[in-house]
Amino acid sequence: MKIKFINTLVITTLVIMTFSCKGEKKNAVETTPTEEVKEAPIASITYNVDVQSSNIDWIGSKPLEKHTGTLKLTSGTLETKENIVKSGSFVIDMTSINVTDLEGDEKTHLEQHLRGESKGKEDHFFNVAKFPKAVFEITGISEKEGKTYLEGNLEIKGIKKNVSFPVTTSIETNVMTLNTEVFTINRTEWGVNYGSKSIFDNLGDKFINDDIELKISIKANKA
Question: Which three-class secondary structure state does DSSP give residue 8?
Answer without folding.
Answer: helix
